[in-house]
Amino acid sequence: MYAITIQQPGGPDVLEWTTVPTPDAGPGEVRLRVIAAGVNPADLQQREGRYPPPAGASEVLGLECSGVVDSVGDGVTWPKVGDAVVALLAGGGYAEQVVVPAAQCVALPDGLDAVESAGLMEVACTVVSNMDAVHLAPGETVLIHGGAGGIGGFAIQYCKALGCRVIATAGHPDTLAYCTDRGADKVIDYHTDWWDAVTDLSGGRGVDVIIDVVGAPYLQHNVESLARYGRLVSIGRAQGTQGLLDLGALQARQGTITATGLRHRPLDEKAAICRRVGQAVMPLVASGVIRQAHTTQFAMRNAADAHRLLASGNSLGKIVLVV
């Protein structure tokens, strides 16, 4: 089969479309004929040598995909050969075929486009697991940084579906409009002093939950933007890993900072998250309550161009690679 391979870490030009051995499904696994794969910031980090896959996982990039089951391993009762699914991967998505634990597959509802859905699982699993972890409740106010990205656009809609008020940040008139279109109640240009805007929009109270993909530079302002008993969820470090934290400000708010990842979780945890997505998210997507992200599509052999676009910060929604 063909897959995107990397001979040595580096820039987008190190990505090559070459032949590799076709994987076989082991016990508890299925093999998918990949239709399309989502592109995520973690892929760029892995390409640069800064985010190695878990032990035993494929070295091929790609943390999510859509596909059709073409073989099953021992002990698998679902999905079956011929079933269309979306899957959460530890790696391997940038390929014509990929092996994945059956428990990390979710049925693709009838009527959903498989290419558009290729970028659904990573964001859905990330957002749902984190919002469950901080016990997001109806009526709370959520601040979502990077609202026009894949995670942000999904998080806006999911939080609104739960009955929350949403404030989103973005950096361009088009991306601010995109956040509004996804359902954000208020939008803020992050080139401004967004923390002052959050204070004004919350009537000085602060927000109950913050979803942050930026990392270090936002840490202190995020804490200062929390309401009493507020929860900061750090799910990205795009602009750094080390920031200043005023513990007094955090204690004054009786706040909580949660930092989570998805790729290196144990298989049973990822299976439980995927079940939750199948139960809580897919009905919302199938009914149109949550709309699929705007997708920019590239042929998989042109993965380098997709990486350049994601790195530029000028993309809306999700980028997907089509086999």
Query: What's the total count of β strands?
Result: 15
CATH class of the largest domain: Alpha Beta
CATH superfamily of the largest domain: Medium-chain alcohol dehydrogenases, catalytic domain
Overall outline: globular
Structural class: alpha/beta
Order of helices and strands: EEEHEEEEHHEHEHEHEHEHEHHEHE
Tell me which CATH architecture of the largest domain applies here: Alpha-Beta Complex
Annotation field: number of helices? 11
Keywords:
single chain; 323 residues; alpha/beta; Quinone Oxidoreductase, Chain A, domain 1; Rossmann fold; 2 domains; seven-stranded mixed sheet; globular
Task: Report on this structure.
30% of the residues lie in helices and 27% in strands. By secondary structure, it is α/β, with parallel strands linked by helices. The mean pLDDT is 95. The longest helix has 14 residues. Strand 11, helix 7 and strand 12 form a beta-alpha-beta unit. It starts with a strand and ends with a strand. It has 2 domains: 179 residues, Quinone Oxidoreductase, Chain A, domain 1, CATH 3.90.180.10; 137 residues, NAD(P)-binding Rossmann-like Domain (Rossmann fold, 3-Layer(aba) Sandwich), CATH 3.40.50. Helix 3 crosses helix 9. The chain is globular and about 55 Å long. It has 11 helices and 15 strands. The strands form 3 sheets. Strands 3, 4, 5, 6, 7, 14 and 15 form a 7-stranded mixed β-sheet that branches. It has a 6-stranded parallel β-sheet with strand order 10-9-8-11-12-13, sandwiched between helices. Strands 1-2 form a two-stranded antiparallel ribbon.
